[in-house]
Structure formats: C-alpha cells, structure tokens
Structure prediction request, 228 residues.
Amino acid sequence: MTSFKTAQISCICFIILVALAGFVEAGQASEIFWEEQDNYRRPPAPSPENGRTQTDVRPRFRTIGQRYSDYLQWLEDNYPDEAEELENLQQENPELFGRHLRISLRKYGEIFHADRENPELADLLKEDLRLKERRDYLLDKIRQEDIAAEDGEQLESQIRQVVAERFDVIVEIKQFRHDQLEQRLRRLQRDLRRRHRQLEIWQEQKEQKLEERMSELLEQKDPQFYWD
Prediction:
C-alpha cells in the first residue's frame, strides 16, 4: 500500500509541476491529473475486451515522462548537483521531491527551454544566474555581524562589480529578445503583404471563381478555390 500511495503522490505532483515548466498546457495538465488519479484508483485489468495489453502505456503520460527525462538529462549535463538531488528525492521522499521540482523549474526551467531552442540566449541566462548566485553569496558575507571594516569595503566593491556585470548581461538579454521580436514582426509583415495581394486577386476574380465553382459542383470536380 505504501508503494501505491508513493506512486500516486509522485504522479500527481509530477503532472502538476511539469505544467509550470511549460511541458504541457495547464488545461492538459488538469485533464491528465484527473485521468491518472482515476487510473490509480481503478486500474483496468489487461484484457482483449477492453483493448489494453500488458505493454499498453498511456501516451500523454509517457510524453510528459520523456520531457522530464530530457530535463533531468539537461541538469546532469549543466547542473549535476541539482540533478542528483532531484533523483535522490524522487526515490526517497516523493512529497519533498514535488516541492523541490517546483523550485528547480522556477530556477532552471527558462534556461532549459532556451538551451533547446536558442543556445545563445541560454548562455546569457546561465551567466545571469551565475551572477545572481555570486551576488547573494557576497551579500550573505557582508551581512555578518563580526565582519571587519576593511573586509566590508572589499566585499562592497565586489558586489558593485557583480551588479555592474549583471546589468550588462540583462541588457544583452533584452536586446536579444528585442531582435527576436523584430524578426518575428518582419515575418508577419511579409505574410500580411502576401495575404493582402492574394485578397485583391480574389476580389478581382470573383466572376471567374463563380463560374469555376459552378462547373466543379455540376461536374463533381475537385475545387480549385477554398470554399469551405
């Protein structure tokens, strides 16, 4: 019974949390949540009558599982300590695993998606994360009560340097996204011009299209114009 509950909790936490990382849409996550919960409560026995076999696997859940596997592999390649902690928690404490996965996705999820689609942006996001962690480390040190005045000045100088570097990285990220948006806008403008020219041609060819359609209907030909 314990292993059953553990599997159920792990499944439910996992389905909800992967939605936060963009692995599935929120609506899909909700549907899968109830479907999986119902399946855990009343798992249908494999039989020819219900069309299930011993090797039958629910495809949507398998897809989510593959995406999580991709995320975990990415963590192993980029942040191995985080990947190891997640793997250990998944086996030892499913409830704590769910909370830690949520934190992990908030911290690394954006970088993970960017790394698959745009490595250049991912590199900038990784550098931004590194600088934030360095800033927090230095702030913890400077806030210690027994710190010497000379050490405090040195730490303050280091914090200023980190903040300045992070400012430059943030500007690069914003510039990168601006350029991406501009490229997308140009593509949309080209598509809009193409559609506008097509619309003008259709308007000019109304009588011709009507005659063609009459012929197609009466002679049962395949239509050359989108009528449906």
About this structure: Confidence is low (pLDDT under 50) at residues 1-10, 36-61. The chain has two domains: 1-117, 119-228.
